[in-house]
Design goal:
Layout: E1 17-18, E2 24-25, H1 28-39, H2 55-63, H3 70-77, H4 80-88, H5 105-113, H6 123-130, H7 143-150, H8 162-179, H9 181-192, H10 200-215
Antiparallel strand pairs: 1-2
Length: about 220
């Protein structure tokens, strides 16, 4: 798949990314750069407060399109203590590219569970707020990415608690990341050379979103 309007980069910088359904993203670096040129302002994050969670994080998520209302912000902040306790149990250096057995699945499920039953808050708004706290571990599970993951993975169904269902989506996401790890790492390095500091998780997220949105 080729994106439009961005110069084709030399073949030496290209890596094909394979998405579900046999979809090949033949020029992912080009596609990523096109996305970042359009939405670079939404990628900002503050890595100086990895164990805290407050209104600044929710406002930053809104800059990235989370659309968390004032009432929802207030409701989330009532859980601030619970969220921060859970967040501190998720290693700051945890990466979804790590071995499955080494990932903090139980603390992650508890962190997601801290957002359960908050009116108006689903996986999309929650992960857009949490991604910046653990950018190498937590993908942004908006409706487009959720639909992509659910198409052929029964493990992302409706059974289990809120936290368990969110973690099932992240586990499913990891399978795509593992399949494309070397290609994503090359793209990450190329983006870094252009002053874009993105994790492999975020790169895959924007590629899934861009390809899915283009096909809709």
């Amino acid at each position: 798949m080729r994106s439009r309007g961005y110069p084709i980069l030399p073949p030496t910088t290209e890596s094909t990314i394979i998405l579900r359904g046999g979809v090949e993203v033949e020029h992912p670096l080009e596609l990523a750069l096109e996305f970042l040129e359009a939405y670079s302002g939404s990628e900002a994050h503050d890595s100086s407060r990895p164990a805290s969670f407050d209104e600044r994080d929710l406002r930053l998520a809104n800059r990235g399109g989370a659309r968390i209302s004032a009432a929802e912000i207030a409701a989330i902040l009532e859980r601030r203590g619970e969220i921060e306790r859970a967040l501190r149990r998720v290693r700051t250096d945890a990466s979804l590219a790590d071995a499955t057995s080494s990932l903090p699945w139980i603390p992650l499920t508890r962190l997601f569970g801290a957002f359960a039953d908050i009116r108006g808050i689903g996986f999309s708004k929650m992960t857009k707020a949490l991604h910046r706290k653990r950018p190498a571990l937590i993908p942004m599970l908006d409706s487009v990415v959720q639909a992509y993951l659910a198409r052929d993975d029964p493990g992302t169904g409706s059974s289990g608690s809120f936290g368990e269902r969110a973690t099932a989506l992240v586990r499913s996401y990891k399978r795509d990341l593992d399949r494309n790890r070397s290609g994503l790492r090359e793209i990450q390095q190329e983006l870094a050379s252009r002053e874009y500091r993105l994790t492999e998780v975020r790169i895959l997220d924007l590629l899934i979103w861009s390809v899915s949105a283009a096909g809709s």
